[in-house]
């Protein structure tokens, strides 16, 4: 019932009137950017599917079964799998969770992870690992793994570019040399023809001068 009371205050932009959230302003939880045209409520059948098919906790058979349900993060992962081609999960619980803070936004903090009775954290931990191993999702499992992959990828991209630059440079140099030689050959050929023409023109004049003297 409290969810409906929350939604009523959210859509009316009013404080919650009754229930455990009485007096609260729901819209401030969305950084004052709430837009009712972009707000969707998940169908209850989808929530039941996730709980009963994938995360059916043994605690559902206990006396406090009414409060047992998957975490909001678990519902979000399965919603993403329905809508997205690729799902990267960051900040979800892993086997080495004791090394990190309770929440992903608590950088540098060493807060203790509390396993509340309404969620089965160990079950979700095992499920995320299984989905990751099968390639269904990519589960971020701590710092130190991603940078190595990124660096190797950068080196792979860098080497072909260097090889391409060298390959491109050699034809240009060869082209420059090839272009230069015909010009030199053309200059020499033109120069020789000019010299030959000058000599040919000069000999008839000399012959004419000698004939005139003899006469």
Notes on the protein architecture:
- The protein has a domain at 1-41.
- It has 5 helices and 2 strands; from the N terminus they run αααβαβα.
- The protein has helices at 2-12, 44-54, 72-83, 121-133, 146-214; strands at 88-89, 138-139.
- It has a two-stranded parallel sheet with strand order 1-2.
- Helix 4 (121-133) links the parallel strand 1 and strand 2.
- Mean pLDDT is 76; it is low at 144-160, 163-168 and 207-215.
- Its main location: Golgi.
- Residues 169-197 have a biased composition (Basic and acidic residues).
- This is alpha-N-acetylgalactosaminide alpha-2,6-sialyltransferase.
- GO terms for molecular function: alpha-N-acetylgalactosaminide alpha-2,6-sialyltransferase activity.
- Cα(first) to Cα(last) distance is 141 Å
Helix content: 40-55%
Strand content: under 5%
The number of E-state strands comes to 2
* Spatial ordering of strands, largest sheet: 1-2
Contiguous helical run count = 5
Which ranges are low-confidence, i.e. pLDDT below 50, for 5 or more consecutive residues? 144-160, 163-168, 207-215
State mean pLDDT (0 to 100 scale): 76
